[in-house]
Amino acid sequence: MSSLRLTALDALHRALGATMTDFAGWDMPLRYGSEREEHLAVRTKAGLFDLSHMGEITVTGPQAGEMLDHALVGFVSALGVLRARYTMICAEDGGILDDLIVYRLREDAFLVVANASNAQLVLDELIARAKGFDAVVTDDRDTYALIAVQGPEATAILAKTTDADLPGLKYYAILPAKVAGREVLLARTGYTGEDGFEIFCHPVDAEPVWQALTAAGEGHGLVPCGLSCRDTLRLEAGMPLYGHELSTDLTPFDAGLGRVVRFDKTTNDGAFVGRKALEQAAAAAESNPPKVLVGLVSEGKRVPRAEYTVVSTDGAPIGRITSGAPSPTLGKPIAMAYVDAAHAEPGTTVAVDVRGKHEPVQVVALPFYKRAR
Amino acid sequence: MSNPQHLQYTKEHEWLTAAVDGVSTVGITKHAADALGDIVYVQLPEVGDTVTAGETCGELESTKSVSDLYSPVTGEVTEVNQDVLDDNALVNSAPFEAGWLFKVRVEATDELLSADEYDALTNPQG
User: Fold this and answer.
1) Which terms are listed as keywords in the entry (chain B) (predicted)?
2) Are residues A134 and A161 in the same domain?
3) Residue A190 resides in a domain
């Protein structure tokens, strides 16, 4: 029998007629209706997501910041209170164990949000890496449900359910607030390339918060959105997904995200897990770049998909696709791929082996889509 | 499930009409269309091609996946649905009607399922 974990909103998803999918052991909505329409709603109006599968871990204590500086590649202790940062946790050999968002809730408290598929590993690593620090690592996966409202109408919709100062809540900031009368942590973060909010609430409050947002979204074009459109939204926005663009075989430098590695940390005498290997990876990326993460756009209709081989115009293998999908915004297939540096220049024509047929594609700069501000 | 009683089905989720003047119409079921999600690419056999029962004769691609199209019968293709090639979404919106895929002059059929048998296959809990 299946032993999938259910979110606090499970009954609601079923009532909405969602197609469900097993995502990292969670039974999650894949889509409610047309994933293309859900995608376009987020780009033009707003979408409502259940992201309760994400893995929340809290780190508290006088040395919580120093401990995270040691455990992660970012300079976490330099983060202002109620601000957030995208960062990563790496192995000693520099391989990426997960990409994370860290929110600083107080001077001595941080909320780390891991991918569902890696949450247990990240929790175990953080507990192990906390040894010797005056800091406590807490598994808060069951403490929070997570609801996101994303899209250009998100602020107007959320404003109808909260007195929180939304204009004052900057991108990558977080605020304790009340939404629909419930205590939540309200963050201006997301994974769609649009403006929007992520709402961490108690699981018992998830349904009232979801229902209040649904009611507030009437007349604003808000629709419930599944993980399928979340994937195409993040792909258009050029955002990496663990297990696709990121893995233990790659360092942040391999993934073109070396900027998240803060060699300039001043805490712990600059020491952190993976530093030595990452310094070598940084030097290698500078002098002899390995494969480069690029965007690909096809003029055809067939979709380059993850694991397909990228070939040069003369048919030689030069890389592999990590993510691919028909782009609802661009109206053509797009993909991200690791390719040999010699073929990574935007404008270069290469091809993808789509089940035996070489479909021409063009290398483009990432992201595919950037919202107008 | 809303699988029309007057059609026959395959385990690979195609449907087939009873032959009229020896010609049957082929499509995919609502179950298959729902499982695929928004269809973005349809490759069909060409008029005049001979398709073989149980063998692939085309391809349906959605946002999330690629699926082979199997022919439920052996015979010559007499017509393909140009409307579907122009607007793939027809397969999602009307899989048993405007979203039909091709017509074939039937020479031989494989084992086909009745609507009730196909219901049982796709909804085993009943």
Assistant:
1) Lipoyl
2) no
3) yes
Tell me how far apart the alpha carbons of residues B22 and B43 are, in angstroms, rounded to a whole number.
24
Top-ranked range on mean pLDDT: pick from A2-6, A204-208, A354-358: A204-208
| A328 in any annotated domain | yes
Residue A190 has pLDDT above 80, yes or no: yes
A228 in contact with chain B, both atoms CB, cutoff 8 A = yes
> What Rg value do the Cα atoms of chain B yield, rounded?
13
Q: Which of A226, B113, B116, B107 is nearest to B124 (CA)?
A: B116
The letter for the amino acid at A194 is E
Q: Give the span between the Cα atoms of A35 and A225, in whole angstroms.
A: 8
CA dihedral sign, ordered A244, A246, A250, A256: positive
The answer to whether A92 is annotated as binding is: no
pLDDT class of B125 with cuts at 50, 70, 90? low
Contact A363, A347 (CB under 8 A): yes
A35 → closest Cβ in B37, B41, B61: B37
The residue-averaged pLDDT of A220-242 equals 98
Q: Is A160's pLDDT higher than 80? A: yes
| Tens digits of residue pLDDT in B6-61 | 999 999 999 999 999 999 999 999 999 999 999 999 999 999 999 999 999 999 99
Between CA A76 and CA A84, with CA A81 as vertex, the angle to 5 degrees is 55
Check which CATH number belongs to the domain holding A223 and give it. Answer: 3.30.1360.120
Does A204 share its domain with A320? no
Contact between A222 and A37 (Cβ < 8 Å): no
Q: Domain for residue A369, yes or no? A: no
CB A129 within 8 A of CB A67: yes
- The pLDDT-based confidence of B124 (bands split at 50, 70, 90) is confident
Contacts 24+ apart (CB under 8 A), A3-6: A5/A53
Taking an 8 Å cut-off on Cβ atoms, the answer to whether A325 and B66 are in contact is no
Q: Which chain B residues are closer than 8 Å to A36 by Cβ?
A: 38, 63
Pair A148, A230 in one domain? yes
Distance from CA of A35 to the nearest CA of B (A): 7
Q: What confidence score (pLDDT) does residue A1 get?
A: 45
Q: Is the pLDDT of residue A73 over 50?
A: yes
* ipTM of the modeled complex: 0.80
Structure tokens at A368: 């595919």
Yes or no, beta carbons of A31 and B66 under 8 Å apart: no
Is it the case that residue A240 has pLDDT exceeding 90?
yes
Q: B126, B121, B125, B124: which is closest to B29 by C-alpha?
A: B121
Q: What is the Cα–Cα distance from A292 to A300, expressed in whole angstroms?
A: 24
Closest chain B C-alpha to A39 CA, distance in angstroms: 11
| Token digits of residue A147 | 């609801």
